[in-house]
Amino acid sequence: MIGNAFQETPRANAVAALQVAEASFAYGAEPALTGIDFAVLPGQAVALIGPNGSGKSTLLKGVLGLITRTSGTVEVLGQWPAPAGYIGYVPQTDQLDPHFPVSLEQVVMMGRFRSLGWWRLPSKADHRAVAEALETVDLSARARTRFGELSGGQQQRGLLARAVASAPRLLLLDEPFNGLDQINRDALIETVKRLKQQGVAVLVSTHDLDLARAVCESVLLLNGAQVAFGPRDEVLTLANVQQAFGSVGVEMDEHTIVVPGHGGH
Amino acid sequence: MDVFTPLITAFDLPFMARALLVLVVLSLVAGLVGVLVNLRGLEFISDGLTHAVFPGVAIGFVWGGRDGLFVGAMAAALIAAVVLTVIVKRAVTSDAAIAVVFTAMFSVGIIVVSRETNYVGQLDALLFGRLLTVSPAEVNQTVIVCLIALIMVGFTLKEQVFRAFDREGTVAAGYRPLALDIVLNVAIALVVVAASSAVGNLLVLAVLIVPGAVARLVTNRLWLLFPVAAGFAIVAAWVGLALGYEASVNGGVDLPSGATVVLVLVAGYGMALVARLALDRIGGHHRTRRAVGQLAEPVVH
After folding, report:
1. What residues of A are in the B interface, CB distance below 8 Å?
2. What is the Cα–Cα distance from A59 to A56, expressed in whole angstroms?
3. What average pLDDT does chain A have?
4. Cβ contacts (< 8 Å) between B161 and chain A: which residues?
5. Which of B98-107, B117-126, B278-287, B291-300 has the highest mean pLDDT?
6. Cα angle: A47, vertex A147, A144; to 5 degrees
């Protein structure tokens, strides 16, 4: 279905798609996140969970090399910096200019640029990969629409299609459920599951336990530092969550972490 | 026919033909680079670059006359482009940094020129260009400089658009945005150098910014922006030159050619703006309907 996606089946002792060891990150001189130590195996997914400002986006940016790492190591498939084209990144859509004159199709094609190389124009194979990626996220009908005219959920899926089109081996998603209705959420979960089956490793920041439960084997709890990392159900205990969210009276139900004064998220 | 004849006949004269050639080449490249300036919102940086090139022009001119002018401009442009790229990356409030550094450099240029009393009269040429006295050798210089800028931007065009849309996305994909930025800023600087000798340092900004802005008003389709911007700039250059010539030779009004071209550019922008506003007004209800249709369309899974 997805043209060039990583096809190998995950092996028990496969080299980690992402290995972060005792890493700290900083914005300039200001430390932002410390003591990060975890791994994502091919075909598996890790959820980053923590309150606002706990460093979820910071960690994703650290993995991308967008901010300074002050200690420790980060390796993508055993290498640093990550080899070009290994990482697919789905940012939050509100970081993008809604007036930028670019169609959805053209945004998705950006995922092909790196493998395409300088100067060269997209080939038929590239157009096919874009069409397939759009089909994967169910947006084929919107291919020619200007990106900024799409709804938030459609933009989110469009950016996921861009990542899919680049056939990544590690997929980073920053709060992908933000502003999505239930239908879009289900579609996103399905796409992520399919990518995992193809051996793609996934690291997803979320405050939505539904997403963690649906696709993630492991959870990394954050609060400026690593609070806990391990199998999802072992980590998501009330005690751990209370420690991460730093508040007495934190409650958890099946879907969300309820923090008093934070409107449920 | 009388109105249109000068559009052709004015260029029978060799100096007019040279001026047109310079402006056509410049328009082509400035259109391409200008769209990227617009997409990236680099108008202020471009302004900084034009200021930064001026002391290079002035020092080069004092040092080596008209040949030194070109060398000085190139050196200043390349240094400024790299310095600027780094400042913007590091500084928290880059606008202030750019303003401080480059107005200071502009002042240095003016002081250098005014110290050399022999050259004070040349300040005009540096600031306002000397389109009609371009020599064949200078035409070659301009074409070569523009060609280099064209290759730099053409070679990285799709990546530049990607970077303009989503900087972090380019990092994730394995690009170095800093390298892309240096390529674009150097290309802008080259256009500034090429345009400085033609329309003058003070008017370069119009050549660099107006065509891209017009293209944005005319179309929302990405790959149409570039030909629209370049085409508009070429037509404006042609009309502006012919108009300046006609007014000076047959109308008895002495219009400086560079400034006339810039005014035609700006008039074109004004017309495009009015047309866009009018179209948006007429199409307003149509667009609303389309937006509603979009929301109402069922999402099928």
Report:
1. 61, 64-66, 82-89, 91, 95-97, 100-103, 106-107, 110-111, 113-114, 116, 118-119, 138, 146, 149, 151, 162, 166, 172, 183-184, 186-187
2. 5
3. 86
4. 102
5. B98-107
6. 120
Are residues B172 and A186, on separate chains, in Cβ contact within 8 Å? no
Residues A16-35: b if buried by 16+ CB within 10 A, e if exposed: bbbbbeebbbbeeeeebbbe
CA distances from B194 to A90, A194, B98, B204 (A): 40, 53, 22, 9
Are A85 and B221 within 8 A, CB to CB? no
Measured CA to CA in angstroms, residue B221 lies from A106, A164, B231 at distances of: 10, 24, 15
Give the model confidence (pLDDT) of B123-165 as tens digits: 677 777 778 888 888 889 889 999 999 999 999 999 999 999 9
Of residues A84, A110, A186, nearest to B169 (C-beta): A110
Q: Across the interface, do B165 and A96 touch by the CB < 8 Å criterion?
A: yes
In what side-by-side order are the strands of the sheet with A45-49?
A87-90, A170-174, A201-205, A45-49, A218-222, A226-231
- Geometric angle at alpha carbon B61, from B121 and B95, rounded to 5°: 95
Cβ–Cβ < 8 Å for B248, B254: yes
Do the Cβ atoms of B206 and B266 come closer than 8 Å?
A: yes
B39 contacts A114? CB cut-off 8 A: no
CB within 8 Å: B173 and A187: no
The minimum CA-CA distance between A76 and chain B, rounded to whole Å, is 12
Entry pTM: 0.86
Q: Distance (Å, rounded) from C-alpha B284 to C-alpha B225?
A: 23
ipTM score of the complex?
Answer: 0.85
Given a contact cutoff of 8 angstroms between Cβ atoms, the answer to whether B219 and A146 are in contact is no
Q: Which residues in chain B have Cβ-Cβ distances shorter than 8 Å to A96? A: 165-166
Distance from CA of B251 to the nearest CA of A (A): 43
Residue B26's nearest CA partner among B272, B262, B273, B224 is B262
Partner-chain residue, chosen from A87, A113, A186, that has the shortest CB–CB distance to B158: A113
Q: Which amino acid is at B56?
A: G
Q: Are A137 and A187 in contact (CB under 8 A)?
A: yes
Q: Is the pLDDT at A241 greater than 70, yes or no?
A: yes
CA-to-CA distance for B264 and B241, rounded, in angstroms? Answer: 9
A86 to chain B: which residues are within 8 Å by CB?
A: 174
Residues paired with B169 in a beta bridge:
none
Vertex B168, ends B167 and B174: CA angle to 5°?
100
